[in-house]
Fold this protein.
Amino acid sequence: MQAPHKGQGKAMEAHTGGMPQHGHGLPTKPRITKNLGDGKYLVEGMRFSMNGWWEIKFDIDSGNRKDSVTFNLVLK
Ligand SMILES: [Cu+2]
């Protein structure tokens, strides 16, 4: 994934996710609260209510290109 350029406003947007094996979404609504630069973003409000396989999905908008990415986490 190519990092969005700096200084183009809000490059990452609200995201979703959940547990594919359980059919439920995230228990909270995490938000991108800060662009830290160099393609790094601060995500706050993340909470996992149980162990297992979680998907976290982000929508990325660099201004002229859009993409999305899914991170897979397995909590034990
Ligand atoms: Cu679950």
Remarks:
- The two ends are 27 Å apart (CA to CA).
